[in-house]
Design a protein that fits this description.
Helix content is 35%, strand content 14%. It is an alpha+beta fold and 158 residues long. It has a single domain, classed as CBS-domain. The strands form 2 sheets. A two-stranded antiparallel sheet has the order 1-2. A two-stranded antiparallel sheet has the order 3-4. Helix 3 packs parallel to helix 5. The N and C termini lie far apart (43 Å).
């Protein structure tokens, strides 16, 4: 099974200059918790999550409408390609603790997104001789790895 068989193709994105209020409104309108951030060539330069917005709005002494996405995006972004094996993408998500993985073509242009929702909805149970390509076991393993708590910043710095 390939990533393109599971991913969401109709993905919304924003730009680095989009402000946090606009990004949050997009997330509300399109029922998503993250947006890929793309440049003029539609290449992914980062990701912004609803959590990023909440933390920035609570810790910066400015209105969300005054804070550009570029100030708070995660710039370390891992990708997958549409023709990549789904289990390779799951491994990336587990290792990087990513709930949503941008899908790009060979030129780095946004093609879609692979989310835990996409994976959960396609997973199947192994029964007898039926061996699905995307199992509940692989899905749960990915989910557990992503949900595992990271060390606190202070503890990691000490």
């Amino acid at each position: 099974m390939k990533v393109q068989d599971v991913m969401t193709s109709e993905v919304k994105s924003c730009r680095p200059e989009t402000n946090l209020a606009e990004a949050a409104a997009m997330m509300l309108d399109y029922d998503c918790g993250a947006l890929p951030v793309v440049n003029n060539e539609n290449k992914v330069v980062g990701m912004i999550t609803d959590r990023d917005i909440a933390i920035a709005a609570a810790t910066k002494a400015r209105l969300a409408s005054e804070i550009p996405v570029s100030e708070v995006i995660s710039r370390k972004v891992c990708f997958a390609t549409p023709d990549e094996d789904i289990h390779t993408a799951l491994k990336t998500m587990r290792h990087e603790k990513m709930r949503r993985l941008p899908i790009v073509n060979r030129d780095g242009m946004l093609q879609g997104i692979l989310s835990l929702n996409d994976i959960a909805l396609r997973a199947e149970e192994e029964e007898g001789r039926h061996h699905p390509e995307l199992t509940y076991e692989a899905t749960m393993s990915t989910f557990k790895a992503i949900c595992e708590h990271r060390p606190a910043r202070q503890a990691a710095a000490a």
